[in-house]
């Protein structure tokens, strides 16, 4: 699938620090330990509706991971999926009397536009569920061959993973069984389905139902893939086991990331005997709320990135507003938050347009230090605020190159383009 265009990424003097992130599986902030090429998988959208601010906040958090790694000298192999076949997509298409393919293509295109406007670095591999079906089917066949999966005995052709044979089950979320059962029921699982071996067994393949699209499947049974095996298959086939960061919203901790991990770990053990983990760190972004409730499709209280853009809101102000809170803190979207970000953006742009500025070295150091510390974006923003205030006041030591360097640093590390100075360094150096 087509990704989106990459924004320019300025190279900064010196090198950034080792990134530390909060790993859900260990329950603490840990250093990431990437090889020369860092590997990250972030779960993508189900394209039945536009990108809301909750989605945007998640992709911005992992965009910071990408930027901090690159600044520390790593290449980054970033993978994201598009769940372009699943129940919610078919339900929405059915409700609106629209072709599900057209709906998926339109919303995926809009997502690309939103990500481009927000200056999110694109994934190297942007992979759809539908295009992955042959690989998913091969993986399900393996699980069936190994006796780790079973076909339900009711003629539907549905295939489930036998979770009693997955030793690592529960190690990603660390939830107890009661919590797992509750989230499983709330988030698309089917604990009460008759004929399953265990209530928490997840579906791998859903046999064809009348009126639904289907593809050739395992054991010759037409149908469509489950969501968790989709991400396991795409990750295994692009960046392999033991990659550095598995990312998503906190509502993916369970069941989605738990099951993707146990599917992949079972497949890898079957293929090579190699043990997991699927990812070295499972990193989760908190939820964005509106009027006291989590912003979610089921509640219908959504603020769309595209709608704000349509109203003429600068995408850089949206970006700054979302980054003004820490990625692991549930937080509210308010008109005041956006206003504050717009004012801040104006101040920063005035500061980088000055002929001289307060010293850039401490800003570069401060930005790197704050972001490497579990993506402390509010701390990073405070560093730039202080520099902008000192620069506009013109008091204390002033450096000629500082505005251009800070402009690049804010762009490269926070992803906020302060366009008025974008060309300044090259012209002055030339
Ligand atoms: Zn996923």
TrEMBL record:
<feature type="binding site">
    <location>
        <position position="231"/>
    </location>
    <ligand>
        <name>Zn(2+)</name>
    </ligand>
</feature>
<feature type="compositionally biased region" description="Basic and acidic residues">
    <location>
        <begin position="190"/>
        <end position="199"/>
    </location>
</feature>
<feature type="binding site">
    <location>
        <begin position="81"/>
        <end position="83"/>
    </location>
    <ligand>
        <name>L-cysteinyl-5'-AMP</name>
    </ligand>
</feature>
<keyword id="KW-0030">Aminoacyl-tRNA synthetase</keyword>
<keyword id="KW-0547">Nucleotide-binding</keyword>
<dbReference type="Pfam" id="PF01406">
    <property type="entry name" value="tRNA-synt_1e"/>
</dbReference>
<comment type="function">
    <text>Catalyzes the ATP-dependent condensation of GlcN-Ins and L-cysteine to form L-Cys-GlcN-Ins.</text>
</comment>
<keyword id="KW-0436">Ligase</keyword>
<feature type="short sequence motif" description="'ERGGDP' region">
    <location>
        <begin position="186"/>
        <end position="191"/>
    </location>
</feature>
<dbReference type="InterPro" id="IPR032678">
    <property type="entry name" value="tRNA-synt_1_cat_dom"/>
</dbReference>
<dbReference type="GO" id="GO:0005829">
    <property type="term" value="C:cytosol"/>
</dbReference>
<dbReference type="GO" id="GO:0005524">
    <property type="term" value="F:ATP binding"/>
</dbReference>
<dbReference type="GO" id="GO:0004817">
    <property type="term" value="F:cysteine-tRNA ligase activity"/>
</dbReference>
<feature type="binding site">
    <location>
        <position position="227"/>
    </location>
    <ligand>
        <name>L-cysteinyl-5'-AMP</name>
    </ligand>
</feature>
<feature type="binding site">
    <location>
        <position position="256"/>
    </location>
    <ligand>
        <name>Zn(2+)</name>
    </ligand>
</feature>
<feature type="binding site">
    <location>
        <position position="58"/>
    </location>
    <ligand>
        <name>L-cysteinyl-5'-AMP</name>
    </ligand>
</feature>
<dbReference type="InterPro" id="IPR024909">
    <property type="entry name" value="Cys-tRNA/MSH_ligase"/>
</dbReference>
<feature type="binding site">
    <location>
        <position position="43"/>
    </location>
    <ligand>
        <name>Zn(2+)</name>
    </ligand>
</feature>
<feature type="short sequence motif" description="'KMSKS' region">
    <location>
        <begin position="294"/>
        <end position="298"/>
    </location>
</feature>
<dbReference type="GO" id="GO:0008270">
    <property type="term" value="F:zinc ion binding"/>
</dbReference>
<keyword id="KW-0067">ATP-binding</keyword>
<keyword id="KW-0479">Metal-binding</keyword>
<dbReference type="GO" id="GO:0006423">
    <property type="term" value="P:cysteinyl-tRNA aminoacylation"/>
</dbReference>
<feature type="binding site">
    <location>
        <begin position="43"/>
        <end position="46"/>
    </location>
    <ligand>
        <name>L-cysteinyl-5'-AMP</name>
    </ligand>
</feature>
<dbReference type="GO" id="GO:0010125">
    <property type="term" value="P:mycothiol biosynthetic process"/>
</dbReference>
<protein>
    <recommendedName>
        <fullName>L-cysteine:1D-myo-inositol 2-amino-2-deoxy-alpha-D-glucopyranoside ligase</fullName>
        <ecNumber>6.3.1.13</ecNumber>
    </recommendedName>
</protein>
<feature type="binding site">
    <location>
        <position position="288"/>
    </location>
    <ligand>
        <name>L-cysteinyl-5'-AMP</name>
    </ligand>
</feature>
<keyword id="KW-0862">Zinc</keyword>
<comment type="similarity">
    <text>Belongs to the class-I aminoacyl-tRNA synthetase family. MshC subfamily.</text>
</comment>
<feature type="short sequence motif" description="'HIGH' region">
    <location>
        <begin position="45"/>
        <end position="55"/>
    </location>
</feature>
<feature type="binding site">
    <location>
        <begin position="249"/>
        <end position="251"/>
    </location>
    <ligand>
        <name>L-cysteinyl-5'-AMP</name>
    </ligand>
</feature>
<comment type="subunit">
    <text>Monomer.</text>
</comment>
<dbReference type="InterPro" id="IPR014729">
    <property type="entry name" value="Rossmann-like_a/b/a_fold"/>
</dbReference>
<feature type="region of interest" description="Disordered">
    <location>
        <begin position="190"/>
        <end position="222"/>
    </location>
</feature>
<feature type="domain" description="tRNA synthetases class I catalytic">
    <location>
        <begin position="35"/>
        <end position="342"/>
    </location>
</feature>
<dbReference type="GO" id="GO:0035446">
    <property type="term" value="F:cysteine-glucosaminylinositol ligase activity"/>
</dbReference>
<dbReference type="InterPro" id="IPR017812">
    <property type="entry name" value="Mycothiol_ligase_MshC"/>
</dbReference>
């Amino acid at each position: 699938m087509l990704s989106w265009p990459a924004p320019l990424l300025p190279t900064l003097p010196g090198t950034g620090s080792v990134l530390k992130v909060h790993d859900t599986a260990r329950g603490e902030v840990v250093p990431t330990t990437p090889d020369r090429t860092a590997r990250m998988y972030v779960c993508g959208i189900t394209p039945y509706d536009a990108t809301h601010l909750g989605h945007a906040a998640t992709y911005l958090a992992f965009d910071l991971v990408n930027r901090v790694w690159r600044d520390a000298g790593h290449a980054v192999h970033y993978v994201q999926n598009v769940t372009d076949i699943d129940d919610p997509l078919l339900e929405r298409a059915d409700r609106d009397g629209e072709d599900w393919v057209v709906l998926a293509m339109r919303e995926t295109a809009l997502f690309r536009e939103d990500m481009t406007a927000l200056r999110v670095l694109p994934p190297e591999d942007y992979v759809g569920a539908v295009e992955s079906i042959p690989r998913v089917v091969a993986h399900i066949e393996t699980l069936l061959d190994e006796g780790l999966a079973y076909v339900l005995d009711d003629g539907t052709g549905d295939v489930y993973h036998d979770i009693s044979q997955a030793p690592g089950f529960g190690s990603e979320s660390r939830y107890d069984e009661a919590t797992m059962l509750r989230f499983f029921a709330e988030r698309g699982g089917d604990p009460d389905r008759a004929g399953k071996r265990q209530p928490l067994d997840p579906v791998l393949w859903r046999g064809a139902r009348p009126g639904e699209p289907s593809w050739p499947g395992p054991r010759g049974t037409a149908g469509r893939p489950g969501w968790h095996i989709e991400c396991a298959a795409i990750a295994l086939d692009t960046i392999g086991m033991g990659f550095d960061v598995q990312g998503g919203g906190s509502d993916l901790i369970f069941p989605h990331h738990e099951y993707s991990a146990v599917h992949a770990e079972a497949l890898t053990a079957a293929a090579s005997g190699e043990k997991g983990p699927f990812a070295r760190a499972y990193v989760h972004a908190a939820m964005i709320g509106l009027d006291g409730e989590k912003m979610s499709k089921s509640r219908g209280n959504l603020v769309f990135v595209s709608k704000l853009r349509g109203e003429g809101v600068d995408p850089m102000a949206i970006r700054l507003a979302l980054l003004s809170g820490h990625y692991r803190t549930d937080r509210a979207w308010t008109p005041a938050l956006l206003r504050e970000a717009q004012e801040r953006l104006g101040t920063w742009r005035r500061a980088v347009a000055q002929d001289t500025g307060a010293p850039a070295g401490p800003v570069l150091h401060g930005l790197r230090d704050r972001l490497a510390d579990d993506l402390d974006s509010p701390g990073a923003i405070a560093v730039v605020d202080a520099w902008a205030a000192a620069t506009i006041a013109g008091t204390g030591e002033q450096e000629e190159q500082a505005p251009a360097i800070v402009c690049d640093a804010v762009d490269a590390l926070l992803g906020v383009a302060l366009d008025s100075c974008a060309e300044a360094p090259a012209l002055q150096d030339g």
